[in-house]
TrEMBL record:
The keyword Glycosyltransferase does not apply. It comes from the Bacteria. Keywords: Oxidoreductase. Belongs to the short-chain dehydrogenases/reductases (SDR) family. The keyword rRNA processing does not apply. SUPFAM superfamilies: NAD(P)-binding Rossmann-fold domains. It comes from Mycolicibacterium gilvum (strain DSM 45189 / LMG 24558 / Spyr1). This is 3-alpha-hydroxysteroid dehydrogenase.
Length: 278
């Protein structure tokens, strides 16, 4: 039997991490390096600290040509892909949020899948903001039925209501359901696909939300664990899901939210009121 400590190691594996310049992606790159991986990092801006990376490739997930060029620049087979890059609705451009968080991420993922061997893993980052993904699935299904970035953009133009609350929720619900949509054919190739759904995590992305909605908005999310998450905690969950220790986990969303969703469901069961934001 292989020891658990061995199953989480990445020795000899090539991993690709988007969003490697900051926050959760930067932490994931460091953990993966420490676990023996060869790490190719991608981001729209160059990281200040490149010590975790074997290669850095510049990419703008909002730009199809840039995504195409970046995928082509990734060297060799890819054992694990971590799509962490993202923006919040605080940037004030719902279509751009959806382009970066979902359409660009999907284009990049699809470009690399042919180079992923059996045993490979795709791990994405959704959000607690996507907790109603089942209730809204009948809408999101239309977006998931699109086959290209251009088709996806046309769907957005035809469905302004879906992006009316900022684009973030829709993009993150699409990430969860994209994993479920692909779980069968990827599974047949021995590839797993999962995502995490973080609650509030102390990274620079919060500055976008602070300036758009104020600190009170962030303070309204109080987790049962009594604090916000660190980027290291989020990265650890990603690294686990991409590792052989998670070998029978696929098509899942892991709510890395300090217990908020569990409390919400319990409060509905027992009809207890919740504070705003929770
Ligand atoms: P962050 O802002 O520290 O990192 C995001 C990274 O994505 C940055 O390095 C940024 O340069 C990169 N990026 C942004 N636009 C890009 C583009 N067009 N092309 C390529 N790269 C781009 O934020 P954080 O918190 O580390 O975010 C990581 C993921 O976690 C995101 O997908 C975010 O939506 C998600 N998340 C974060 C939460 C939080 O409270 N921090 C909560 C729920 C989800």
């Amino acid at each position: 039997m292989t020891a658990l400590g061995e199953l989480v190691r990445y020795d000899g594996r090539h991993v690709v991490v988007t969003g490697c310049a900051s926050g959760i992606g930067a932490q994931a790159a460091r953990l993966l390096r420490d676990l023996g991986a060869r790490v190719t990092g991608l981001d729209v801006r160059a990281p200040e600290d490149v010590s975790a990376l074997t290669d850095f490739i510049s990419v703008d997930l909002a730009d199809q040509d840039s995504v195409r060029a970046a995928a082509a620049a990734v060297d060799g087979a890819v054992d694990a892909l971590f799509s962490v890059a993202g923006v919040s609705s605080g940037i004030g451009d719902p279509l751009l949020v959806l382009r970066i968080n979902f359409l660009g991420m999907r284009q990049f993922t699809e470009s690399l899948l042919d180079r992923m061997p059996a045993g490979g893993a795709v791990t994405n980052v959704s959000s607690l903001a996507a907790s109603a993904y089942r209730e809204n699935a009948h809408v999101t299904a239309g977006l998931l039925a699109t086959r290209s970035v251009d088709e996806g953009l046309r769907w957005c133009a035809d469905h302004p209501d879906a992006l009316a609350d900022g684009g973030y929720r829709q993009s993150k619900e699409a990430i969860i359901l994209y994993g479920m949509q692909r779980v069968t054919d990827l599974g047949a190739r021995g590839i797993r696909i999962n995502c995490t759904a973080p609650g509030v995590t102390e990274t620079p992305i919060l500055d976008q939300l602070r300036s758009a909605y104020g600190q009170q908005y962030l303070d309204s999310f109080t987790a049962p664990l009594g604090r916000v998450s660190t980027p290291e905690e989020q990265a650890a969950a990603l690294v686990f899901l991409g590792s052989r220790a998670a070998g029978y986990i696929s098509g899942q969303v892991l709510w890395t939210d300090g217990g908020i969703l569990g409390r919400r469901i319990a409060s509905q069961m027992f009809d207890e009121p919740l504070a705003q934001g929770n």
